[in-house]
Design goal:
single chain, mainly alpha, 0% strand, globular
Length: 210
């Protein structure tokens, strides 16, 4: 199951329901928003994780932020102001400019017909959710998050790569040749297969912005 499906189906739609209630949407529109914001967030994560320093910064941010860690399994924390701040911090790392965030939200509003103001408020929460989902995957990988941090610096032992760092490195290309060779890219992870979903338009927009 890819990350988009994980977020949409988590807890029998608990995340979708939380965001729908939080922003006054029906669940169909909340799912549509998620389906079209996640690709742009993923594009930003891919860009950031392509450098070792960017990868380490993302891992460090998750390690120190309980709201990000919990949001996938406890979506009620998305209503906390801290979750919005955490998400904005992530967006700052992966997009680098508020203009990119505004453009992504604007394109999504144009493509889906959803309210721009709502999408701007939802985008940082989506960033946190994507990172929370990746963090959960990483915690289930061999080595654990703590054990892999030393392997991210300098001459790491490839066999020790695991947890979130190894996951991001292998999925997004973590700056090592052997990792990049095995990486299938964010498109494979999120299964954007040209099925006509407007999410592909947002992902293409994100590529141009980066």
């Amino acid at each position: 199951m890819n990350i988009l499906q994980e977020i949409l189906k988590s807890g029998d739609g608990k995340i979708v329901g939380q965001l729908a209630n939080q922003f006054g949407l029906n669940e169909s529109d909340a799912a549509k928003a998620l389906s079209n914001l996640i690709p742009a967030v993923a594009g930003g994560i891919k860009k950031t994780a392509n450098s070792q320093s960017g990868l380490e910064a993302l891992i460090s941010k998750i390690e120190s932020d309980r709201n990000v860690q919990q949001s996938f399994d406890m979506p009620e924390v998305l209503a906390n102001a801290e979750s919005t701040q955490s998400g904005n911090d992530i967006l700052g790392d992966i997009f680098g400019s508020k203009d990119v965030s505004r453009t992504v939200a604007g394109q999504t509003a144009k493509s889906t017909g959803l309210d721009l103001g709502i999408l701007k408020k939802m985008l940082p929460l989506v960033a946190g959710l994507v990172m929370s989902s990746l963090n959960k995957r990483g915690s289930q990988s061999s080595g654990g998050l703590g054990g892999l941090l030393g392997g991210l610096a300098g001459a790491a032992q490839p066999q020790r790569r695991g947890g979130l760092g190894g996951l991001l490195g292998s999925l997004f290309g973590g700056g090592r040749r052997q990792v990049q060779q095995s990486s299938s890219g964010i498109e494979s992870l999120l299964d954007f297969d040209g099925d006509g979903n407007v999410a592909d338009d947002v992902l293409n927009l994100a590529r141009k912005l980066f």
